[in-house]
Write a structure and sequence with these properties.
The chain is of the alpha+beta class. Helices cover 24% and strands 46% of the residues.
Length: 169
């Protein structure tokens, strides 16, 4: 009888230890979850972007409507940024209403990166000028942008690509 009583005590003790371990692990996982949630909700580091952050070649894609009531417009281009506020379109293809046309004339422009990692861009070419506003993300590897000229509705992105084309300013 004594063996059965000891066996019951051992089982009771083992189940209490198991329950204590499980409770501790469970409680610690909630502490960890609470800490990670708090960290995600914490203020972010201070932004400090400059023109130097955008340097090199970027592939661009934008789409929208270039003129009020006009056909859909899409553009694919390769652009070079010099890190000092100058840019140039190296190669571009425009689709208006589904007809693709290579753009052979040179587009140049300027850009100004703000400390909050927003950017203002101006493209110039063929007597035209277009203004854009963007947000720099992914450590300068991506720029999300939209055209801010009245009557336009274009937006797109620029993605940094490996140096394959060179452009002299």
């Amino acid at each position: 009888m004594k063996n059965r009583e000891e066996e019951t005590k051992n089982m009771f003790f083992k189940s209490r230890v198991t329950a204590a371990i499980f409770s501790t692990v469970f409680a610690l996982s909630f502490v960890n979850l609470g800490t990670s949630l708090k960290a995600e909700g914490s203020p972010r580091r201070q932004l400090s972007c400059t023109n130097r952050m955008i340097r090199g070649n970027y592939a661009s894609q934008y789409s929208g409507v270039g003129t009020p009531g006009g056909p859909p417009t899409n553009l694919l281009s390769l652009n070079t940024f010099d890190g000092n506020g100058n840019l140039a379109s190296v190669r571009a293809f425009l689709s208006v209403g589904g007809e693709i046309t290579p753009i052979t004339n040179e587009f140049t422009g300027t850009y100004q990166v703000n400390s909050d990692c927003t950017v203002n861009l101006i493209f110039r070419g063929s007597g035209l000028e277009s203004r854009w506003f963007g947000i720099i993300v992914n450590d300068g590897n991506t720029i999300l942008y939209q055209q801010i000229d009245s009557g336009t509705n274009n937006s797109g992105s620029l993605e940094r690509v490996a140096d394959g084309y060179r452009y002299r300013f």
